[in-house]
Amino acid sequence: MFTTLAKVRIADAQRFLEVFATHGQARRRAHGSRGAQAFMLPDEPGTAMVLIDWVDRAAFDAFRADPEAPPTMRSGGALEPPQFTVLERRGHYEA
After folding, report:
1. What angle, 0 to 180 degrees and rounded to 10, lies between the N-to-C axes of helices 23-30 and 13-20?
2. With pLDDT > 70 as the criterion, what percentage of the chain qualifies?
3. Which of 21, 32, 44, 90 has the maximal Cβ count within 10 Å?
4. What domains can you pick out in the chain, each with its CATH number?
């Protein structure tokens, strides 16, 4: 599995989450997303952090190259393209 962390500046959290959970989900799934989690930064209004699991790097690259992805992000209120960081998962621990 391949995981990315995206930091996104947004205009409105509710609008962002609505599009992220519908049209955004469809775009991600079309390229091999295995799921995503969205977080808001309480100390930075207008900033969302998103963890996205992908089948592999090629799936993520295909998503990034999709010409429909940027308009979908903008429709959710993204003010600029997300800043992606690639993460290497080393463990998952239950509480």
Report:
1. 40
2. 100
3. 32
4. 2-87 (3.30.70.100)
